[in-house]
Amino acid sequence: MRGGQSSVALPPHSGASATIRIEPPRGFFELRLREVWAYRELLYFFVWRDVKIRYKQTAIGVLWVVLQPVLNMLVFTLFFGRLAKLPSDGLPSPVFYFAALVPWAYFSSSLQLTTNVVVDNQRLITKVYFPRLILPVSTAVSGLVDFAIGFAVLVIFTLAYGIKPTLTALWLPVLLLLAVFTALGVGLWLSALNALYRDVRYVIPFVIQFWMFASPVAYPASLVPWRWRWLYGLNPMTGVIEGFRWALTGQGRPPDLVLLASSGMVLVMLFGGLIYFNKMESTIADVV
To answer: Does residue 71 form part of some domain?
Structure first.
């Protein structure tokens, strides 16, 4: 299947043959989300495939999902908490860092996988038609398995420190959805660009490293002056991380201004990513 248009002849159903014509999007805002829903079974297959590949023939498997944020938490607690003595907004340092590293681990891994998903599936893309949008969506969804494992350990960790959940925990699904949309929105831009320019994948590790230090993972957002807090919130992961700490522990003030700015930025990135990805979809098969 190449970019452009083609016709597919189907077996006759009522004495006459039916023809399905596949064409690129005509309108600028033609996102074809209904078509993605029609292929939801294929989406489920891709998600299940990604999960099986991730854990098949691995030495420690699920344990690595737990070890990675735990080891990072220990390093952050030692260097940023004990040596640099950065504030933790009244939370125990291990809980403060762990609550940020779990959503950040999901975002960083999903962003890397989503960036490479089009190139990694180039043989499939050039042979059969399906909504290409399913590929980045499947990687963003499959990463939720790792997140669920890490989040379960995080809950046990907070309970061990005597921090019990409050009504603020009801915000956790909303914040998780914000993290998913952030990874998907940025991933749509990068996956399309990576199909055109293969060196994009080499820039991603630097982008993720820079983004982590631009996010309140190792320090609280309260260090940023209040008048600049809304500007800092334009980083979508700022609202996600600060929101997770507040929702999980129930301590501190809600990140209302930061969360509002982050939500607005996520909508812009996601909508723009959908438009750009669908625009590039008609040429991806020719250049991938």
So the answer is: yes
Asked, for residue 237, whether it belongs to a domain, the answer is yes
Number of C-beta neighbours around residue 29 at 10 A: 9
Number of domains the chain is built from: 1
Q: What is the distance between the alpha carbons of residues 129 and 121, in angstroms, rounded to a whole number?
A: 12
At 260 the pLDDT is 92
| Residue 11 belongs to some domain of the structure | no
Give me the domain span that covers residue 116.
33-287
Mean pLDDT of 127-156: 91
Residue 8 lies in a domain: no
- What residue has token string 């944020």? 69
Tokens of 13: 């159903």
Residues 6+ apart with CB under 8 A from 276: 188, 189, 192
Whether residue 6 is predicted with pLDDT greater than 60 in this model: the reply is no
* pTM reported for the whole predicted model: 0.86
Whole-angstrom distance, CA of residue 18 vs CA of residue 165: 57
Q: Which residues contact 118 (CB under 8 A, 6 or more apart)?
A: 125, 132, 135, 136, 191, 192, 194, 195, 284, 288
Largest CA distance in the chain: 79
